[in-house]
Amino acid sequence: MSAKSAAPVATPAPSTNGHHASANPFLDMLARFNQAADILNLGERERKILSVPEKIHFCNLPVTMDDGSTQVFEGYRVIHSTALGPSKGGIRYAMAVDQNEVMALAAWMTWKCGAVGIPYGGGKGGIKCNPRAMSEGELERMTRAYTDAMIDVFGPDLDIPAPDMGTGGREMAWIVSQFSRLMGGKYIPAMITGKPLEMGGSKGRVEATGRSVMTTTIAALKKLGMNPNNCTAAVQGFGNVGSNAAKLYSQQGIKVVAISDQTGAYYNAGGILIHQAIAYAQKNGNMLEGFDGADKISNDELLELNVDILAPCAIENVITKDNAGKIKAKLISEGANGPTAADADAILEDKNILVIPDIVANAGGVTCSYFEWVQNRRGHYYTENEVNERVDQIINQAFEEAYQAKEHHKVSMRLGAYLVGVNRVATGLRLRGKY
Ligand code: NAD
């Protein structure tokens, strides 16, 4: 089976499944892009090209399940832009995966790489599945089938995937091994990032996204004149991003009073011992259900807690016009992609809440991925300190550029980051010329 390209959709029909049943994240993305394009006075050509993805690949993946039955899974890979380089972006395994979601996530990768200034375009992939309900063997067969389908899409100079929700080093290892097998056995580690260390992964990659949530939070607290040691935080999501953000927050002296995952939220006014929560989740199928170091509250309550810092690190559209008015945090660091719906932006601004947008706050992941790709290509590997220093420097600079754009144009920091990102991408597009 081979991947096929469908026609790009300019204004896609709203998604109807999952947690964001009433919202279409691609339209949320477009709303912010258009605001930035207006301020930048972007030409009609750039605006038209960047409002739609370059390519949409769709495949149906037949997988033999452990009981001998066959199940067919929907797989996507969307390339939003290659104006600044090969497309880069994760692969998500979740039931809410659909074309609109993958299109939005791909575009966010474009603006993120632009905002951070690394030489990549934006792409994203996903398979509509519930990975928790599948065995390791079923997941491996599905992942290898997806790699087969995307064999002409992926490549170190074409499109470079990485982990996202529901995937990690294990899936990256299957993909690079399948890809290399299909390439006649030549090992091509730079075709994917987020690999296990033993397969050419980078030191620091697992923590990198949570780390940029932390470094941007510290930079923002400085701007606000707040001392981390006097701050409390609530972190939504306890997967790769959320658990590392919570751990690094507490290492910086920030008291994490609430954490959560899909089983609910856990609150302890005295502070949660994050290493205990991580150890508990690891033993409990990566879930916090039953964690007794805190009282159980709902995910909605977590968002509205009286804390200084809120870090949504789970899914899209959890902060909406319905709850934005009730948020008490002074600072929001968006570890997740798209956790704030576009219609909540103005409410948060009116409340004077500083929002470090996703395309800066969680950009440590793709920045570290860039250095993984560089190391694979050079065949020379950095120490963890070297990687962290390089990534921190780029993230701090991206934070400062977005913050300066916010001050200069008197806009939100989100719009400031979009101005930096969209401007770089549009410039790349113009330099490539027309045909
Ligand atoms: P993950 O699969 O490791 O963890 C996701 C977490 O969110 C889990 O704890 C899950 O239980 C929780 N969750 C799911 N639905 C929830 C809900 N309705 N309410 C509360 N919690 C819920 O995924 P991840 O890699 O940590 O990614 C999380 C977010 O960060 C995603 O938006 C992803 O796109 C973004 N992100 C990830 C990376 C990365 O390097 N992994 C990089 C940039 C951005």
Structural commentary:
Helices cover 43% and strands 17% of the residues. By secondary structure, the protein is α/β, with parallel strands linked by helices. The strands form 2 sheets. Strands 10-9-8-7-11-12-13 form a 7-stranded mixed β-sheet. Strand 7 (232-236), helix 7 and strand 8 form a beta-alpha-beta unit. Helix 1 crosses helix 14. The longest helix has 26 residues, at 384-409. The radius of gyration is 20 Å and the shape is globular. Residues 1-22 have low confidence and may be disordered. The protein binds nicotinamide-adenine-dinucleotide (NAD). The site of nicotinamide-adenine-dinucleotide has 25 residues, from helix 7 and strand 8.
Small molecules held by this entry: nicotinamide-adenine-dinucleotide
Average residue-wise pLDDT: 94
Oligomer: single chain
- Strand arrangement within the widest β-sheet reads 10-9-8-7-11-12-13
Major β-sheet, in short? 7 strands, mixed
Care to count the β-strands?
Answer: 13
Helix content: 40-55%
Derived from helix and strand composition plus strand pairing, the structural class reads alpha/beta
Distance between the termini: 32 Å
Keywords:
435 residues; seven-stranded mixed sheet; 13 strands; binds nicotinamide-adenine-dinucleotide
Write the layout of secondary structure elements.
Elements: E1 4-6, H1 25-40, H2 44-50, E2 55-64, E3 70-81, E4 87-94, H3 99-116, E5 121-128, H4 136-149, E6 159-163, H5 169-182, H6 205-224, E7 232-236, H7 240-251, E8 255-261, E9 264-267, H8 274-283, E10 295-297, H9 299-303, E11 309-312, E12 331-333, H10 345-350, E13 354-356, H11 358-361, H12 364-378, H13 384-409, H14 413-431
Parallel strand pairs: 4-5, 4-6, 7-8, 7-11, 11-12, 12-13
Antiparallel strand pairs: 1-2, 2-3, 3-5, 8-9, 9-10
The chain binds nicotinamide-adenine-dinucleotide.
